[in-house]
Amino acid sequence: MEGGFSKLVVDAIFPRFCVGCKTEGILFCERCEYFYQDINVKTFCVFCFRFGSDKTCVHCNEHTFLDGVSSVGDYKNSILRNLIINWKYYGDKSAEQFLKKIFIKSINRVCPPVLSFYSTHVPLHYGRKRERGFDQAQVVSSWIEQLYGIPALDLLVRHSTNKQQGGSGIKRSRLGELDGIFRIDENAEFIPENILICDDVFTTGATMDAAARCLKDSGVKTVWGFVLASG
Ligand SMILES: [Zn+2]
Ligand SMILES: [Zn+2]
User: Residues 152-209: pLDDT tens digits?
Assistant: First the structure.
């Protein structure tokens, strides 16, 4: 299916325009891909934007269950943002390969802790996953597994939906407001001590923090976030 009939259908319904130069034909043209550069490449605390490290700073530490968050890029970068939007809201699977290549390009700069870590993801509600056909956070977790050689586990279930983050005109939840929307997957074989939890975008952090809280309530010691874009 993938790349065959479904691709023809997507191409017929949505003519593609490059997220960089707007030329019609492909979502990210070769030239724009070649010249792609990320912005704001310094590391910082994702909660208060204090520069220096992607570890949660001492000031924010008491308000969150996340020990740090590493991000491939900045959500203000229109190319990165539009690739993610086309991927998850318009279901354009061609965005996936470009996002993965951007991640691979940044791999020496973005250094989440992986030694003695396992990877998992912030799951979509099953209804939304069925609607979308895939869970973008799970895809990111599978890249982490491939590229860092750490096992990806399905540890969480989302048992209620919350408003989508990252789009325009959408309510953004504050830290703590989404606590209780996740539970541990009853099929999880074991709960590791250190988890790298993946998602596509980090905005207020409310969703990822609620997931981190659920993991820590179940005995996890370190929960570190990993996203494609933050801000
Ligand atoms: Zn282009
Ligand atoms: Zn901070």
Answer: 999 999 987 665 444 444 467 889 989 899 999 999 999 999 999 999 999 999 999 9
**What is the full DSSP assignment across the chain?**
-TTTHHHHHHHHHS--B-TTT--BS-SS-HHHHHH---S--S-B-TTT--BT-SBPPTTTGGG-S-SEEEEEEETT-HHHHHHHHHHHTS--THHHHHHHHHHHHTTTT-----TT-EEEE-PPBHHHHHHHSS-HHHHHHHHHHHHH---B---EEE-S--PPSSSTT---PPTTTTTTSEEE-TT-----SEEEEEEEEESS-HHHHHHHHHHHHTT-SEEEEEEEEE-
CA of 22 to the centre of ligand 1 (A): 6
Give the distance (Å) from ligand 2 centre to CA of residue 11.
43
- Give the model confidence (pLDDT) of 198-215 as tens digits: 999 999 999 999 999 999
**3 Cα: distance to centroid of ligand 1 (angstroms):** 21
Residue 163: other Cβ atoms inside 10 A = 11
